[in-house]
Design goal:
This protein is mostly helical. Helix content is 37%, strand content 0%.
Length: 135
């Protein structure tokens, strides 16, 4: 597990994996106290969220491999955008309308009935991004 000291750790790590922090709403700030301080922790926390309150796993399946309710997030093929971290944050934040969904089902903004917060969205987006980076 990699570890960087100080408040700049999230910025350095996210930039290192190609996550541009310039996009509106995705900037990692030092005051995001509950944001993990290294990439492994962020992805781990994102996986917990994926399985937790927004229940992404219900539609997108174990390991993000997809179901009849939700698209495969692990194959590197993206229906909306090209799978950048910023785009994933935006999709989770704003959802996907039923008419734009491959499955014909809406993806609610922020997750299902128990919407994720901004820092939780950034963490789950890191996990989803990591799923699509498998060789």
């Amino acid at each position: 597990m990699m570890s960087l000291p100080g408040l700049w750790a999230p910025v350095v790590i996210l930039a290192a994996v190609g996550m541009s922090l310039a996009a509106g709403g995705t900037e990692v700030r030092a005051q995001d106290e509950d944001l993990p301080r290294n990439l492994d922790e962020m992805i781990g926390w994102g996986k917990e969220i994926y399985w937790g309150k927004p229940s992404c796993v219900t539609c997108h399946g174990v390991g993000g491999t997809g179901t009849k309710r939700g698209s495969d997030l692990s194959d590197g093929r993206w229906i909306h955008g090209n799978g950048t971290y910023e785009e994933i944050v935006e999709l989770v934040t704003h959802g996907v309308p039923k008419g734009e969904s491959k499955t014909g089902r809406e993806m609610p903004f922020g997750g299902w009935k128990n919407a994720a917060t901004g820092t939780e969205i950034r963490a789950v987006a890191a996990y989803v991004w990591s799923l699509s980076q498998r060789p």
